[in-house]
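Translate sequence into structure tokens.
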Amino acid sequence: MPPATRPTLPIVPTDYLRFFRSPRFAWWKPLLAVVGAAVLWLAVTMVLTFAGIFLDGFENVYPEPGSFVMRPWTFLMNNLSLAACIPIAWLFALAVFGQRPGWLASVAGRFRWGWFARVLVIALPIWAVLIGVSFALSPSELGWRDTTAFMIAAIVLTTPLQAAGEEYLVRGLLARSVGSWFADERLALGVAALVGATVFMLLHGAGDPWLNVYYFIFGAVSAWLVWRTGGLEASVAIHIVNNMVAMVPLPFGDLASAFDRTAGAGSPFLLVNAAVLVGAALLFDLLARRAALENRTAPGRLELERARSLLTRGFFAA
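Result follows.
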């Protein structure tokens, strides 16, 4: 078939991480998508970061040469820049691979809200206990501050989008682009999870080894869960719960020290967090299998039949 008439979706049952491997796939498309998305995201991030620094005041964000202090507006703009990953990932999935946004959410072609809500409800008490224990072991002085109302609004309105944005860009566009280079499903999973987890770790810019280990495990486990469930919903739900629960004390504490990721900021207790994450992922995998959640589909077959029908009609008309 002429390249322009080939299906943009898989014509054989395909898992999430190799879903870009349609009859219209070309080796250079994943590279174009990843580089293009990265450049656009960096441009958006620069604009929003400068806006945040301007609104907070340069002298407050950079009180000393070489230092950086997180302030309310820079926090908000950082969240918005990560939330922008969602439309950016949609744009490049559509422009480069011809797949509409719903296919980036899952192999069902849509965001499965029922499954997402189920994971959210189960994950919330698990992470509430985990973060509660962590906070009890390292208590901090809390109180109402002049930035508290602003921070509550910023966290509630933008943190879920920030968490979802990271999933759409790293576990979605990036991992799927990398996975699409491999015909073997297991090899695609291994390389995509490794690359995605490494990028996820580096994006957090931590100088503490325990934090880096935790970020890497978080990225790898999330990639595995996406592959097993056939969509981003579970990883998005876990990421939202993790970030929202962890940020409960944030509006009432010292914002400047809350984002300290230098050496010594983490501890071996993060291995407990990682173990809880692994256990939760196994639980959600079990629930997904019991619910017979689709994790491999071949929606391109319908496209293929339509294209063949049009070509046949054109041949006989000629």
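Note: Residues 20-317 form one domain.
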